[in-house]
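Consider one such protein record:
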Amino acid sequence: MARGSRGPCRVFGPVPSRRLGYSLGVDALPFKTCDLDCVYCQLGKTTRKTLERKAYVRAKEILDELSAALKGSRDIDFISFSGSGEPTLNTELGAMIRGAKRLSKVPVAVITNGTLLWQPDVARDLMAADAVLPSLDAASPAAFKKLDRPVPGLPLEKVVQGLVDFRKRYQGKLWLEVMLVKGYNDSLAELRRLKACIDRIRPDRVDINSPVRPSDSRVRPASPAVLARAKVLFGPKAVLIAASSKKARQPGKATAEQVADMIFRRPVTAEDIAHSFGLKAAEVQALLSGLVHSGTIRASRRSGKLFYRGS
């Protein structure tokens, strides 16, 4: 991972997000620390699979770096806690969210797999966020095990009930993401089961997504017909998530380290980098060529596009 003088950079971007516009990302966990090992994860296999909550990264470290990043960032739509693991595993997440809101008027979002909301302390931590974006990919235990590959001791019904109970208390925006993957959860029967769960949870919006940059080339997005069927079935709050349509930023600048930090958190295209930092195509290619040549990143083609990811 790209490193500054004090260790890994925890704040990255802003990056263009298909759901949050331009998002300044905050990574509060060591790389790939999660309670799931989803087959479609763009960062590859989970290397630290756990249900243990602890202070993996301290709030002060995050907030010091966030304060510095906010001084040099423009046109941010959200500060988003996401990154390379499941953010709710960090016991200091609540302090980070409240601290971020003291630092800036930019709304704070938490992108989570939603599996730990049944824990009272996790739900309490998220109450201060302006938006919570949990996932629900499966509505049957078989699909949950096959697609999300949870850590032992994490039953699906507990996950769903946690989402239902959280919605009853949470006053912010709750946007539920459903990631549809060909051959895993795209059958009509599974879609109907997902619909029943969505009706119980009552989110403000349902974002229907499909993987465009999986690390495993065998993972395929659901067909356009399935996505359209899901949109109709899930109802008027359902939205098909398309590629970001944000216009490029005004001309800016970026270092190779900033670009590498962005790439290590999520595979991106050259166009994504250009939009994030307001760079010209030639500037992006020069940065990418140097990072590829040094072995810091590598390029791979998925769904007809060239993505750059950490080596």
In short: The longest helix spans residues 156-169. The chain has ten helices and 14 strands. Confidence is low (pLDDT under 50) at residues 1-7, 243-248.
